[in-house]
Amino acid sequence: MLEQIADKLQKVMRYLRGEAKITERNMAEALRQIKLALLEADVNYLVVKDFIERIRIKALDQKVMESFTPAQQTIKIVRDELQAILGGKVKSLAFSTSPPSIFMLVGLQGSGKTTTCGKLAFYLRKIGKRPILASFDLKRPAAQEQLRMIASELNLPFYEIKTDKMKQPEKALEELLLFAKQGYFDPLILDTAGRLHIDEDLMNELKMLKSILRPDEIIFIGDAMTGQDAVRSAQAFDEKIGLTSVILTKMDGDARGGAALSIVTVTGKPIIFMGVGEKYDQLEVFHPDRLASRILGMGDVLSLIEKAEREADLKEAEELARRLQKEEFTLEDFRKQLIQLRKMGSLSQLLSLLPSIGPFKNISRLHLDDRQLIHFEAIINSMTLEERQNPKIIDGRRRIRIARGSGRPVHEVNQLLRQFNEMKKMMKTPLFKKLIGSAKISYFG
Ligand SMILES: Nc1nc2c(ncn2[C@@H]2O[C@H](COP(=O)(O)OP(=O)(O)O)[C@@H](O)[C@H]2O)c(=O)[nH]1
Ligand SMILES: [Mg+2]
Fold first, then answer.
1. How far is it, in rounded angstroms, from Cα 104 to Cα 102?
2. Which domains are seen in the chain, by residue range?
3. Residues near ligand 1 with C-beta < 6 Å?
4. Torsions phi, psi of 59, nearest 5?
5. Among the atoms of ligand 1, which is closest to the Cα of residue 115?
6. For residue 195, how far is its CA from the centre of ligand 2 (angstroms)?
7. Exposed end of the chain (fewer CB within 10 Å): N or C?
8. Model confidence over 425-437: pLDDT tens digits?
9. pTM for the complete prediction?
10. What is the pLDDT of residues 171-215, one digit of tens each?
11. 396-406 and 370-381 helices cross at what angle (nearest 10)?
């Protein structure tokens, strides 16, 4: 996610760090590079222009230039401005004081509306709400089927609007509202029709839905992978029906970042969530501050801690924290840790949240993918207890035996031992301890 833009901007930040003084000259060079990076990332031209100008003014302020750490301060300015164009603060959904709240999802076909309806309901139920799903499509009443299947997969309530009822939309929607109200559901999440292109027909249908339902949120679902096209269609939807917020999907495939970095400024609507994969739990609250830090390689430790808090097996986390403090981390712990990491979701996704500096510099070299984790587990399972406690004794002969036992090649055994040592180093850092520790505190505190 956003690797391309992150790569380029981090290069500029390294350039700035290398300069002893910030002068108009090296500042101009840095700004030129930032501008190029943003334009290559397909960020809206006007957004780029404003962004660069604001940084120029702030960074060339006397106080910054004469300070002891001009580069650091400039980087902070870039970070803050990046956060600003991503929307500044986290925005929450607007729930109604007289339930059910109504959230209507709109967008072009294929943008991820139906999937996101499911993800959103799944997320809201997790935080204690009682969502209900429904779908309205005059042209293709059968479109409901997809949402019904998602609902049944996730065990979420779904209200079916019978095809013949679609002919009297007002009546059908009133019945739907009554059902939601009487069942104390909140919110009602409504999936709507999509087209490949914006057309009058669709807009009229959505306008009708809006005037009957008076939704609390009209959320534009934009496919981040389509870059400025997503921004343009958001604009068009906003002009025709009026939007309250945006969810960007397929951020997992969006290396450039053009949509995320433009859509808030261009439409004036906040991004509230982002989709980061096809699975139903791959919807994340959109944190402009954390994302800005992540793009600049400052890491997103808070997200990581939250993830650890949510998913980790906390008893084991505590035990691990204890062992880390005593520095007796063994391969057996590593094996448990691997199992835990697998529970926490895709490891590469997790590792990408760590800052790419200091002890974590080589993290991308670790190349741990989820299948490899399973292989590693198999290898460790083939070791004796003694070998797990004291990996130093694992010589060439033992490596061959372990490889045979686990059905993995010897070089993979070597790789595992190497990565174990790297991991051991990494785990001794205060940051990692804090991470493990926070999981402990939230559970035992
Ligand atoms: N990788 C990825 N795929 C997504 C995401 N959200 C949706 N999709 C996929 O996008 C495709 C279209 O989604 P769908 O919900 O049917 O779009 P709709 O036509 O707007 O209702 C499906 O294959 C989804 O699995 C996401 O955040 N990441
Ligand atoms: Mg759909």
1. 6
2. 3-85 (1.20.120.140), 102-295 (3.40.50.300), 301-444 (1.10.260.30)
3. 107, 109-115, 194, 249-250, 252-253, 275-278
4. -75, -30
5. 15
6. 10
7. C
8. 776 666 666 555 5
9. 0.73
10. 999 999 999 999 999 999 999 999 888 899 999 999 999 999 999
11. 110
